[in-house]
Amino acid sequence: MTDFLQLLFSGAATGSVYALAALGFTLLWQASGTINFAQGEFVMLPAFIMLAGLSAGLPLPLAFVATCGVAVVVLGWAFKRGIADPLFKFGMMPIVVATIGLSIAMRNGVRAGFSAEAHPFPGLFGERLFTLGGVTFTAADVGTLAVALVLVLGTQAFLQRTVTGRAMQAVAQNTESATVLGINVPRMIFYTFAINALLACATALLVTPVYLAKFDMGESLGTKAFFAAIIGGFNNSRGALLGGVIVGVAENLAAAYISPAYKDAVALVLFMVVILFKPQGLLGFKEVRKV
Amino acid sequence: MKHLSKLGAVAFLVLLLVAPTMLKSYGVYLFTYWLIYVIATMGLNLTVGYAGQKSLGHAAFFGIGAYTVAILMQHGFSFWLGLPAAVLLCFGVGLALGFPALRVQAIYLAFATLGFTTAVWLFIRNEEWLTGGTFGINNIGRPTLFGQALDGALPYYYFVLAVAIVMAALLWGLLRSPWGKAFQALRDNPIRAESLGVHIQAYTLLAFAIGAAYAGVAGALFASLVQFIEPAPFTVAASIMMYLMVVVGGPGYFFGPVVGSAVGVLLPEWLRFAQAWYMFVFGAAIVVLMLWLPDGLLSIPERLRAKRLAREASAARAAAAAALTPNITQGAQ
After folding, report:
1. How many domains does chain A fold into?
2. Which terminus of chain B faces fewer neighbouring Cβ atoms within 10 Å, N or C?
């Protein structure tokens, strides 16, 4: 039983990281119809920028803040202006293909220009262990889960409680009526891209100590984020959290009780079951098909 | 124009027949490799370019085809049993995978097939009793045809070329049949197609499964070409690469896969000295291609023609206006 609880908890910690990546993914989708296949690389790049900052002698918090700045410009603004905006009018697939190209370019650019090795990354929470009722928690799991939860719920609160957040939601729901109401639509969409970039930086900070900084670290993370987003409900940002945690927990339990070799197939199986029975996702709502 | 493209096709075929005789055996090997990718991406072009289904799982079917042939031949069966088995298995798995995935929006298929590639890759890597795991399968033989062993590089090349031409002819026939028209109708406007009596689910499923079967053929030929298979060529990255080959060549252009596979298979070989940066440039080129030429390389002639026509039309308008102006000025006096 304690084993089970331990697995459940560390699964939830991994899942909360998937949820962070998935949240940015759903936000982009809602606001601008962009499906970002480079989402995993959007986490990989900040990890390397932080690493560069650390090796230049910056302390981690400073490196993180600097990385956030760079990410908002490069992964937020430049990505929006360079790829998402010009391709928006052609529908979904050109953006998908372009972001696939972007992910290949980012991955191989880092590999060729920086390093093909895996680099260690300092952990945030130390190596301590807690024991509670016979169940052992690692400080890293507790810290990751806490930070990820705060970020996801904080983003939720920002979207629901602030004027800017509500304006962003209005844009996501109906661009035309948002324009009529005097909302600066392009700016709100930019905010979404900026939030996605910031969430990616936070994900990098949480995940890199475990995954290590490597040019292809984004590959599995990106795929898990898609699956988490769809399982939870693609058009509901609360779904990302639920989907991420479900995927993380299910993976951990399957690895322990079924077969560790097939851990990476768990998300796929869940995804197939969900789209068979509830294609809009667990928390999603049906979108009416327009003729 | 039509004559010109016919002439070009014949010249290209002659080149394919003659060129390998002048190459060293590695060159012939590469050309064979390329043709196998042409067969695989032809199938994907049917799925993606003609039927409009975004499949990112082609390398999985390619792998299923390769391993089916390899395992059967390992147990003493002939290539000629392995090939149809590979095709049927891919077709069947295509139907089974497509059934849930094709029920929902297009983008879900992309994710489902992406995950499917991972699952197949994991299976190949983990089930050592069947697939040899990471050690792979060694000593896969080459087929014999009419008592003639196809062991040499050149005979096998001609064999693959013959298969490629047969597969291309079949695809050509299929695209001109009512089925092919239905696929394209579906891609262009699913709702109209449905209202004209095209059964959407049946046809999308069929296009997907036929595309998978093409990958099965290519996989079978691949196993026999490289004679040693392991999980590495069947990863998610390989699936994505095949999709990009179709996109680069031009989805929905019959010869798109020929061009796309050349970019994906032959070009990296020539640019080997820049291997790591090649993929960086390739990725960046995909982004640029989407921004400026979303219909692929083969849409360039059409683009140029459209531009020329537009220029001629505007020149004609200008000439007509110029011819008209003196009259107007005279009328004013």
Report:
1. 1
2. C
Whether B159 and B306 map to the same domain: the answer is no
My answer on whether B134 and B111 are in the same domain is yes
Interface probe for B, chosen from A110, A111, A272 (most Cβ of B below 10 Å), is A272
Q: Same structural domain for residues B150 and B206? A: yes
Q: Is B306 on the interface with A (CB under 8 A)?
A: no
Q: Do B149 and B270 share a structural domain? A: yes
Of B100, B247, B280, the CB nearest to A272: B100
User: Domain count of chain B?
Assistant: 2
Q: Do B290 and B235 belong together in one domain?
A: yes
HSE, side-chain direction, 13 A CA sphere, residue A33: 14
CB contact under 8 A, A104 and B101: no
Strand partners, B144: B149
Give domain status of residue B319, yes or no.
Answer: yes
Please enumerate residues of A whose Cβ is less than 8 A from a Cβ of B: 35, 83, 86-87, 90, 92-98, 100-109, 111-113, 116, 219, 223, 226-227, 230, 259, 261-262, 264-265, 267-268, 271-272, 275-276, 279, 291
Residue A37's nearest CA partner among B295, B243, B104 is B243
* Contacts for A27 with CB less than 8 Å, ≥ 6 apart: A155, A192, A195, A196, A237
Residue A240 falls within a domain, yes or no?
no
Domain at B44, CATH number: 1.10.3470
> Which chain B residues are within 8 Å of A113, Cβ to Cβ?
280
Please give the mean pLDDT across all residues of chain A.
86
- Interchain CB distance below 8 Å, B291 and A112: no
Q: Is residue B2 part of a domain?
A: no
Alpha-helix residue ranges (DSSP H) falling in chain A: 2-32, 39-55, 60-71, 79, 85-88, 92-113, 139-161, 163-173, 175-180, 185-211, 218-232, 237-257, 266-277
Q: Which chain B residue lies closest to A116 (C-alpha atoms)?
A: B276
Residue in A155, A196, A164 with CA at minimum distance from that of residue A183:
A164
Asked if residue B205 and residue B112 are part of one domain, the reply reads: yes
B140 and B277 fall within a common domain? yes
The answer to the question of residue B19 being in a domain is: no
Q: Is the confidence metric ipTM above 0.85 for this complex? A: no
> What residues contact residue B252 under an 8 Å CB cut-off, 6+ apart?
B45, B49, B50, B184, B187, B295
> Is residue B13 assigned to a domain?
no
Q: How many CB pairs under 8 A join A and B?
A: 126
Question: A82 is in which domain, residue-wise?
Answer: 22-218
User: Domain residues for B322?
Assistant: 299-333
Which residues in chain B show pLDDT less than 70?
1-2, 4, 104-106, 147, 275, 326-333
Tell me the pLDDT tens digit for each residue of B81-111. 889 999 999 999 999 888 877 776 667 788 8
Is any Cβ of chain A less than 8 angstroms from the Cβ of B126?
A: yes
Q: Note the pLDDT tens digit of each residue in A176-197.
A: 888 888 888 888 889 999 999 9
Q: Is residue A147 in a domain?
A: yes
Q: What is the pTM of this model?
A: 0.85
On whether any CB of chain A is under 8 Å from the CB of B244, the answer is yes
Phi, psi of B312 (to 5 degrees): -60, -40
Identify the burial level of B38 via C-beta atoms within 10 angstroms of its C-beta, where 0-12 means exposed, 13-18 middle and 19 or more buried: buried
